[in-house]
Every structure is written in C-alpha cells, then in structure tokens.
Amino acid sequence: MAIKSTVSRLAPHLLSVLRIVAASLFIAHGTQKLFGFPAAGPRFQLLSMLGAAGILEAGGGLLMLIGLFTRPVAFILAGEMAVAYFTQHAPRGAWPIVNGGELAVLYCFLWLYFVAAARPTAIPAITTTMPCRTISRSTPPGVAPSAIRSPISRVRCVTE
Q1: Is residue 122 part of a domain?
Q2: Nearest-CA neighbor of 81 among 47, 115, 36?
Q3: 115: nearest Cα among 76, 59, 57, 83
Q4: How many structural domains are present in the chain?
C-alpha cells in the first residue's frame, strides 16, 4: 500500500515532467522546420503546410512547456499530428513503423492524453488535505468546518 500512495503522490509531478520533456522535443521539431535548428534541414515557407506545422509545433510546444492553455493546445496539437500522419505517412504504408509515422502517432496520443489528464491552469492547483479537527480549531462556535472558506481556495477536509 505504501508504494501505491507514493506513486499516487508523485503522479502530478511526473505528469508535469512528461509534459515538459515532450514539449521540449516538440519545439525542436518546429524550430527545425522554421529555422533549420537544432538539426540542419530544409526550411519551409510559413504559408505552406509544413510551415504551418512548424508554427504549431514551436508555438504550441512552447505553450505546453510553460503549461499555458494546456488542454486546448494539446487538443490542437493532437489534431495536427493526426493530420500529419494521414497526409504524410499513411500514403507510404499501413504500419507506422513502415511509413515512418511512429512519432506522429505517439505525439497524437500523448497530446490526447494531456487533453484528459492535464490540469486546466498553468499554475498547479494548491490542494491541501487536512483532517477536519485541524480546521475546526479555527472555526467559530456553531459553524461547521466545511462552511469555512479558506484563503487557499482548494482545501479539502477529510474525516478520519
């Protein structure tokens, strides 16, 4: 049981690490399309399909990196990766390993995961769990602990 509680406690932090690492790699794909950096490659016109993909990957990756508008940006990026797979990779073969579309599929489903799992704001929500008896010490007589509005907006009172 201790391992499960430790993993549960670490889950939001690991989700943030996954978001930051994936976004950093995604930014590199966008900057490669736009500027030929960090790896030398062809630069694309901004008004082309690959130029638009570069803008989405660099800009959306940056927003994902800082955690701003995470859910809507992840939804747009998942759609971009689905379009990339079906327009660029799928015509070359049925299997992603054959047509070179593994990263497009992986990013598509990774961003879809963030649509469902990410916190809706850039700043991690402050969630504190404390026993009711701890809160009830500061409550006026006759007032239920659950009726007290904490300065921290997301305080949950748990009963023991």
Answers
A1: no
A2: 115
A3: 76
A4: 2
The closest alpha carbon to 83, from 59, 56, 61, belongs to 56
For residues 34-39, give the mean pLDDT.
88
Q: Kindly state the average pLDDT of the residues 81-109.
A: 96
Output the CA–CA distances (angstroms, integers) from residue 107 to 84, 89, 101, in the order listed.
Answer: 11, 14, 10
Within-domain flag for 100: yes
Does a structural domain hold residue 54?
yes
Cis? peptide before 38, omega within 30° of 0:
yes
- Domain for residue 72, yes or no? yes
Q: Mind giving me the DSSP string for 61-99? A: HHHHHHTTTHHHHHHHHHHHHHHHIIIIIGGG-SSHHHH
Residues 18 and 89 in one domain: yes
Amino acid symbol at 68:
L
Q: Give the pair of three-digit tokens for residue 119.
A: 């916190």
Residue 90: Cβ-neighbour burial (10 angstroms; 0-12, 13-18, 19+): middle
pLDDT, the chain, mean: 82
Q: Give the range of the structural domain holding residue 133, as residue numbers without chain letter.
A: 128-158
